[in-house]
Amino acid sequence: MRDAPVSPLIKGYPRAGAWICGEPAWIRTLTPRTCSSSFPCPASIHAAPGTSYVPRRSAEVANPLSLPRFPAALPRAEPGYFFAFPGMGSKTSGFPTRVLRFLRLLLHAGWALALATFAYPRGDQVRRAQLLGDWSRKLLEILNIKLIVKGKPPKVPGQRVVVVGNHVSWLDVFAVDSVCPSRFVAKSEIRKWPVAGWLAARAGTLFIDRGRRHATARTNMSIIEAIRAGDCVALYPEGSTTDGTLVKPFHASLLQPAVDAGATVHTASLRYLDAEGRFTMAAAYIDNMSLLRSVLQIIREPMLTAELTFGEPIRAEGMDRRELARVTEEATARSLGLPPPHRQPGKPSGPPA
After folding, report:
1. pLDDT band per the 50, 70, 90 thresholds, residue 60
2. Which residues sit opposite 147 in a β-bridge?
3. What is the distance between the alpha carbons of residues 166 and 240, in angstroms, rounded to a whole number?
4. What residues contact residue 79 under an 8 Å CB cut-off, 6+ apart?
């Protein structure tokens, strides 16, 4: 039997192609599900209108090396909520639209340089938060990203607040900043990025070098001072981005400053949907992807929806950092409808602070 042809819709995305096309045995592991909305499937599957296909686990896959691990949570999606890969949809934004978005994005980046040079350093805490929130909301508008906020966001600035959540994309920062402007904790490598690193530093980003114990201790003190000064501090305790299909264990050492400062911790869970309301990986910034490639992938989407869910506030004072990591990661996974991260018994949540 010959292999099924690869659909042109996903030919440019090897990871998506591994999911949908390839060996006939893999196609047989697709489980049909029917809903009221139409799901654009590759021609090789010959899907009937109104039928979508969700991968299910199978021990008999012809080419297991080509298949990424699929979490058990996604096949249990509610009716009408399906998984979509970048470029899989039948509709993409037209070339003129992409060019216009890209040019507007460049102009908006230039505006950020002007604000960071002249306005941001001269503003007080409230003014800086306003500038950051306005700029972030405009960025989402340029990229045609609709922001849906669920739950109750924290009131900032002026409170001892720490925001933690799952990390999918560089867009996460601006989705959170649109609602509660924050000082983010980021890895020290970002400071070296051209333009973006300088902008991040001017916006008050707190850089941490986790490979050096003394540097980490100094950064933790800076985070504690920022929290006590009333700045909202946001961080991603997973330590890296994911494709949005799982939540990684939270590193407890990153949450130690929240405990020491007696902060109130708010979880901010984020997932991205496509124009038809399906879960999508189009915004995911993973697999050594360049920033330019990620931007181009996002602007080709007709529309994206960022669904940001805030959980109930958690008082960190008096809690052990590992307990705080466990509570926040479980709350994050629960709000996304995903299973909590698997931990080995007795395994610490990250290196010591």
Report:
1. very low
2. 306
3. 9
4. 35, 36
Q: Measured between alpha carbons, how far is 167 from 97 in angstroms, rounded to an integer? A: 28
Strand ranges, E, within the chain: 30-34, 51-55, 83-84, 145-150, 161-164, 183-187, 206-208, 233-235, 264-273, 279-280, 304-310, 314-315
Distances (CA, A) of 300 to 46, 89, 112, 288: 26, 11, 23, 20
Model confidence band, residue 344 (pLDDT cutoffs 50, 70, 90)? low
> Looking at residues 8-24, what average pLDDT do you find?
36
- Give me the percent of the chain exceeding a pLDDT of 90: 64
Say how many residues make up the chain. 353
Average pLDDT over residues 38-50: 36
Mean pLDDT value of segment 227-249: 96
Cα(60)–Cα(62) distance, rounded to whole angstroms? 6
Query: What are the percentages of helix, strand and coil residues in the chain, rounded to 5?
Result: 40, 15, 45
Provide the 3-class DSSP secondary structure of residue 271: strand
State both tokens at 132.
């950051």
Q: Which domains are seen in the chain, by residue range?
A: 14-82 (no CATH), 95-336 (3.40.1130)
Taking 80 as the threshold, does the pLDDT of residue 52 lie above it?
no
User: With 0-12 CB in 10 A as exposed, 13-18 as middle and 19+ as buried, what is 331?
Assistant: buried
CA angle, 178 as apex, 187 and 333 as ends, to 5°? 65
